[in-house]
What does this fold into?
Amino acid sequence: MELYLAALGICAAAAVLAAVVTRRVRVVVSSILGALGCLLAGGVALRILITGSTSTFHTSQLLPMSGLSLTLDPLAALFILASAFVGVAACVYCVGYAHGAMASRTAMTLLFVFILTLLAVPAASSVVSFMFCWELMALSSMLLILTNQAHSSDARAAALWYGVMTQFGAASILLGLLLASLGTDQTFSAIGAHSSQLSPTLRSFAFVLVLLGFASKAGAVPLHVWLPKAHPEAPSPVSALMSSSMVAIGVYGMIRVGEDLLHGGTVWWWVSVAALGVVSAFYGALHATTSTDLKRLLAYSTIDIQGLILIGVGAAGVLNDSGQPVVAHLAMMAVLLLMVAHAGFKGALFLGAGAIEHATGTRNLDRLGGLIHTMPVTAFVVGVSACSIMAVPTLSGFSSEWLLLQGLLHGFADSSTPALIVMLLGVIALALTGGLTAVAFVKVFGIGFLGQPRSSGAADAREVSTSMKVAMGWLVVPSVVIGVVPGAFVALLNRASSSALATPVVSPIDKGTGLVLSQLSGAIEPAALFVGLVVVLIVVWAANQRLAQRRSRRVDAWACGRELQTPRMQYTATSFAEPLQRVFADVLRPQNDVEVTHVAESRYYEQSLLYENRVVDVIEMRGYRPLITAALRVGRFSRRLQNGSIHRYLAFGFVALLVILVVLA
Amino acid sequence: MSATITTSLYGVAATLIQIVAVGLGGPLLVGLMAKVKARAEGRVGAPIVQPLRDLRKLLSKERLHARHSSVVLPLAPMIILAATAVAVAISPLVSTHPFLGSSADILVVVYLLLTGTVAAALAGLDAGTAFGGMGSSRVMTIGALAEPALLVAVIALSIQSGTSNLPSMMSSTIAHPDWVFGPSRLLALGALLIVVIAETGRIPVDNPATHLELTMVHEAMILEYAGPELALFSLGEAMRLGLLFSLVANLFFPWGIATSDSVLALAVGVILLMAKAALVALGVALIEVRSAKLRLFRLPELLAGGFVLSVLAVVTGLVTK
Amino acid sequence: MNSTYVAALELAAGAVLVSAVMTLWRRSVRSIVSMLSLQGMALSAVAIVLALHEHERALFVTGCLVFVVKGLVVPGLLRRVSRLDPRSRESRPLVNVPASLVFAAVLIVLSYVVSSRITSMSPSEASHLVPIGVATVLVGYFMLVTRRRAVSKIVGLILVDNGIALVTFLLTSGVPLIVELGSSLDVLLVVVVLQFLMVSMRRHSDTDQLTEMKALRD
It folds into this structure.
């Protein structure tokens, strides 16, 4: 525990340092300090996961009411480990990335505060400490988005959306937690011990409130609208942290409150969690395939993966309630593995997107291309992470999705109808998103890195600095390691899932390098698959070299008889996804405008042709805009009461006083 | 101890036999389908071994790389070959327990096939031409729409067997012959046939014999390939086709596969596998002869049909459980 | 014996549902009608299998009757009706084909959910298949709502009828002969009326797209 507090202290010191020293020192020294803090926190979390111990810390000094209390149990430790891992990368990345607004005092300080809260939220173990860390996390990340406002006109709107949604969410969580903690001293252990005495209605009400807040943070549709605005507008290391760690903390909240504090509750809680997941997974994947802004695409893909995670959480909850603890643990372990894997590859992808933006000045895929020649390291990082998210075998996305599918598949053995529905919808959602994710990330790599540059910025791109390369490389490690030897993490996952689900069982997965289900049928050995793939690759390469000519000759590409072949003739990100956009037009509602200007002499000849294609978030347009308009109308009405006259304001106070007196009398 | 060694020796032998059988058999199946189509259309057609001859010819040609292309261009065919070969190696095609059979999960095979599709689509985008991009975009669109049908159909089969481990699925089918004509099975078979036609680029999804760029799907994607790399690419695609046909045949009619360790059983397994795959090829070729290629934007109807069939397979599986 | 019975029953009931989905899938009226014929035969197969297993002669007769009326006569009449129209395609349904297929999948899942209570009331091999009948009813109703052509709408109506018949066969092991006879004759009558209607409609407006019916009001 002391080491953990020391780690938090180091992060705080980095924040303070960033606020006081000069720019050069600020960027390098505080970044290194922050990375050290994250490493230390990650080490502590790893030790807790290995030993399975739990340690607590309490002081009544720092916070009002029940004071600050922190508890490190394996579940919290796993989320801290993931955040710390990405945190290290974000800090190292900053050394090379920080320029302009990101290098400012405010931005650097806020970054370390944000990392500090990401490490602290999972450990917070009383209502007050949890809400304090939670709000600090929301506030620091919101201000970090605002640091970008000089460069991007959308940043302010994004921060506003984010701020409003996160405050509603926080209020809802606070209310839910207070309801759940009625009659206790508001520490989590007391709530957990006492919650079975609450009436079922009250418990369900508390869960729904908490769920609304956490689902919004986790990016679940339809509470996701802030996410595709906020994540792209934040500076890239912050986007990486938001997309890989902060959204995961939303899921952490659901597991902590639903399973640990309220002991699983009733089946329909988890059916609704899974339903949120199904909708999010499909909606996120669909928008990811049609987005052309690289970071917006990644944000939507985060919604997709979070959807899969919620499906798993829902499945685990339903199965746990209907008396299938072994499969429930399997699903929970799958979810936790997917969460860790996602932290790795999504962090790497966002840092890669930052590198591209840094080097080319744009993150619009339609203006990129050919970067594999000029930025080979970034290409490698993005390529491997994209393969991982597409669930290419022996990378982390594959191992975790396989485990999730196993959880759902064996969940079919349960015969209760809610369980079967959750499993069925979960399988369908996984199946639908798999192909769409592949399209999205073939687009990212194929349009962004292959072909010819589509703009001068892309043509003049240079590889980024060493610290950024190191940071991106660091985040590729989990993709490969979790992918090839997932068995090494089974013990850690089992501890975390045992501390999440109330019914501890023997690990459903055997010890070893691969994933071998012990009480159920099913196994993969990714290490063997990996060796097999490498052996075949070498054999094919050698045979190709021996059997055929070795030297290759460069020739012009086939242009169907035309002489001219320009980069503008290539497929773009928009045209690549156009067929799918047309297929799913009923859901996406794309807006197309064609404007033709004819030459003056004849209307058979065209002078110019303007084609515009936009895909906006339907839920935002149909669901939120009416609310906002209504709120504005109320605002406009209440403005009539204010005319700036001080007399009128004083009169309001006087009238109010009179009314109160009358009512009291 | 010696029994274990014998078992693993037979496993290794079965794996090698499978790779060779699919490596040679895949191109032969392509040739067979071309022959059947030619005969049905009243032509003599090229000999069945023509695809193998083409491969030899291509290997002896000059290695040409398009300007602006990167390392992806030569790497992609190797990745397709490697992914397919590993899928072939672990799948129970000739014997129910090939080497690495413990990893022979049907989901692994599905995702290995997806890896091949992804590599091919990236290769199409590599040279930065309009046709390559068009081919990749279409291949990925079809792949994205076929993937749900494939995965759900596979899950329907796994639910019935209670596992997604391929050898266990096949031995449980052998133990329950009455499953073969169950509605869930037949629906899953229908869905898988549609997926197989889509994944191997056959009519009505794609026309492998087309020479007009605008109607091409798969052929547009590989326009930049020539010589040895084209040979590897074609071999990889032919092996994919061989794997898919034999896997479908074995999933629905596993009898004949070697369940014990003996040379005779392996020999019978190989011959029956060839026969079953040839039957599937015959069926697909007849479908090709009888139907016209669908417009690209009519394909979603076909693939959505496959998806609904697979969902039906799961639901009827649950109903009749 | 018992396992053969169950397998045959499942197969026939499955065929009823698949042919229902296929009517949503196909566009040409000819193949829609042949799917309907297939469904009628599958429905009669369900009745006959049940009859053989329960040794009920009346049900057997009902099955044969269903085969003749729903498998042969009604599709035959519809085929004759559609032959009047050279453009025999459901060209633009109100909900496009992929979307209606996906929606059909949703309906099937839904019917599984809602009928789980019915199946648990009288658990037997036959009553397990009730969701299939409910799904056929829902798919038929969906077709009735979303297709423009009069022929397709009639097909939807017959799907609903077949689904109800399937549910009653499975739950009560057979409706009384006279009821099934009545409903089959009803359908027959509707088809005959339709035939007259279509001929006269064509004489007036040269189409049987029911959306054009709005014009009659003005």
